[in-house]
Specification:
globular; alpha/beta; seven-stranded parallel β-sheet; 621 residues
Length: 621
């Protein structure tokens, strides 16, 4: 009888390591990076099962995961309509797609293992057992651990980071507890500082999920125009710091809080419709044969792998959605608001307010968007296909791409520049130090490629290579982590601190403060599907940029065509360019010159994005 062991992440992995002593001469296969790292750390021979998936496999899985986002089109939707909104559509598609991509990657990883090994028996963990049973319920199985792990949804856990003593500390809260604490604190602060929105004769502009610290100048310009900025944030509070509160007061902004608009009658309506939705939704998804048919790939149903998470996505958050729909309806009825501005169109809150039929919706470009026809299918997460009314872009390159590739009418596109980068142009004076390098390591995310242990190994190897180059040449490193919650950030911190505990690591500190001090920025990119906004920010500050990618292929982005940065592969001579570009050399000067040519092509209204956008919003009819 041929037996193999398949492992993935478990909280009791140390116990699993001990249990492995019982199984001599049995092939061990890991299917995620966490188990791979732990097995490697304990010097246990194993195979990385996710290496059996090639790039073509991973992109095929991504494409399939996108096709399931509109799964509800396969069932009757009429009973799920509430005040003109289809409640089945109001889901964060990025979170949903990430769940699908992760599950399908593991599904095909284990399928390849079974096809290759042809085992009679598999010793495994509870989560892998579910996948095995989807593929072949005839195989003999044995659990190596009794622990059962429920995969949590990305937005079911809220992580709050603090740059305390430079090293980022964090706390984690459940979505429910976070919302409870957030709502209570917002109510108190709004009362103390008079920040609660109240109906008035002054016309207002609604901003959904905006950080006041990033858009202070925009709010100030709108205030100068005699209009009022009103913020509604369901995720990160607009009152998240002392500075943000001061900005809101100074720019005469107001806040819409969760319970502010709800009357007793509204609460009764919400309760009634929660009960109705749950009943109708459960009736639909308990139709096992129908759901297995909808969630099927290559004649394999994976419904049982995602059923619990689908229930969580729809059932546990229904109160929030109903509440915001009623708020959106009230905002529409009082006619105070001329437009609503959001940074994406796929989040739950954004989907509700940007689809209010009585208010103009404006999508504001918020990142260094670079696109190529070669990978157009990957752009779905940027929401360009969801533009309803208007999009405000940073420059002509983005405008041309939308017209040429999305056939978007020119009158829907507003070229404004980047409001959140106006302050960069007013802070060109800096105390640059030739010996300081800013390292911006982008974490590996699983939305496109799923689990990939080989990529994690290469990332660690390349990161250590950068660290060694800096130490060898007396170059001082500062590290700026990506602000998004990502478990790979923890791994990056661990690698850096293990190599040199004196290296300063920042997460919430504004990157402008760090760019002022450095002579060079080094960006580590796990893939080449898009570009980090930190690249543009460094270019604005006239800092040369080295972008090191782990990918074997680059795409034809405009900043690469313009040779605005030094683009390297992980196998290139990184040390040579780090030394050369951190000093005042001709090569450095030439690179900065080319970067400024690209900047002028890419970014319009430099330093005046806020004023330009404010005027456009105020004049919008």
């Amino acid at each position: 009888m041929k037996t193999i062991i398949i492992l993935d992440k478990q909280n009791d992995f140390e116990q699993i390591i001990e249990n492995l002593e019982k199984y001599k001469n049995i092939k061990i296969i890991s299917i995620d990076n966490i188990s791979h790292k732990r097995l490697t750390k304990n010097k246990i021979d194993h195979i990385s099962g996710d290496s059996l998936l090639n790039q073509e496999d991973r992109l095929k899985i991504y494409d399939k995961s996108i096709s399931y986002l509109n799964w509800y089109e396969n069932i009757s939707n009429e009973k799920f309509i509430f005040n003109g909104y289809n409640l089945l559509e109001i889901v964060d598609t990025n979170e949903f797609q990430m769940l699908l991509s992760e599950k399908l990657t593991k599904l095909f990883c284990i399928k390849n293992i079974l096809d290759l090994e042809q085992p009679d028996k598999i010793i495994t963990t509870s989560s892998s057992l579910k996948i095995i049973n989807c593929l072949n319920d005839k195989i003999i199985t044995e659990l190596i651990s009794e622990e059962k792990i429920d995969d949590e949804l990305f937005f079911d856990v809220i992580e709050i980071n603090f740059d305390e003593k430079i090293f980022p500390k964090k706390i984690k809260l459940s979505r429910k507890n976070y919302q409870l604490i957030k709502n209570n604190i917002e109510n108190i602060i709004c009362k103390i500082y008079g920040l609660s929105y109240k109906e008035n004769k002054r016309k207002s502009i609604l901003f959904v999920e905006f950080n006041p610290e990033s858009y202070e100048e925009l709010f100030n310009e709108i205030n100068k125009c005699g209009k009022q900025s009103v913020l509604l944030n369901s995720r990160r509070s607009a009152l998240w710091s002392k500075n943000s509160i001061q900005i809101l007061k100074k720019t005469n902004c107001k806040i819409i809080t969760y319970n502010q608009f709800l009357t007793k009658e509204n609460k009764k309506i919400i309760l009634k419709n929660i009960i109705k939705f749950k009943k109708e939704f459960l009736n639909e998804i308990e139709n096992q044969s129908k759901m297995e048919k909808i969630f099927r790939i290559d004649d394999i149903s994976f419904w049982n792998l995602i059923k619990k998470q689908i229930l969580d996505i729809y059932i546990t958050r229904i109160k929030e959605r109903l509440t915001y729909i009623l708020i959106s309806e009230k905002i529409s009825n009082n006619k105070d608001f001329e437009c609503v501005v959001s940074l994406n169109l796929s989040g739950e809150t954004e989907r509700i307010f940007s689809n209010n039929k009585n208010i103009i919706s404006v999508l504001l470009q918020h990142a260094f968007g670079n696109y190529s026809k070669q990978i157009k299918s990957l752009e779905i997460t940027d929401d360009l296909h969801l533009i309803k009314d208007k999009i405000a872009v940073w420059g002509e390159i983005m405008k041309s791409y939308l017209i040429d590739n999305y056939k978007l009418p020119e009158e829907k596109i507003i070229v404004v520049g980047s409001p959140r980068h106006d302050s960069f142009f007013k802070n060109k004076l800096n105390n640059e130090n030739e010996n300081i390098i800013l390292l911006t390591p982008r974490p590996i995310i699983r939305d496109i490629e799923g689990e990939n242990s080989d990529k994690h190994d290469l990332y660690e190897k390349t990161l250590k290579k950068i660290l060694k180059c800096a130490k060898k040449n007396d170059l001082k490193l500062m590290v700026k982590l990506h602000p998004q919650r990502n478990e790979h950030n923890d791994n990056i911190i661990e690698i850096i601190k293990k190599y040199d505990s004196e290296i300063k690591i920042f997460q919430n500190t504004p990157i402008l403060n760090l760019l002022k001090k450095c002579s060079l920025m080094v960006n580590l990119s796990p893939d080449s599907y898009d570009a980090s906004t930190t690249i543009l920010e460094a270019i604005i500050m006239k800092k040369p940029v080295i972008d090191i990618t782990l990918a074997s292929k680059r795409y034809e982005f405009e900043f690469l065509k313009d040779k605005a940065i030094c683009d390297l592969n992980s196998s290139d001579n990184i040390e040579k360019f780090m030394v050369e570009l951190s000093s005042k050399t001709n090569t450095r000067n030439e690179l900065i010159e080319k970067s400024q040519i690209h900047l002028n092509r890419y970014l319009s209204n430099q330093g005046n994005g806020s004023k330009t956008l404010a005027q456009k919003l105020v004049d919008m009819k």
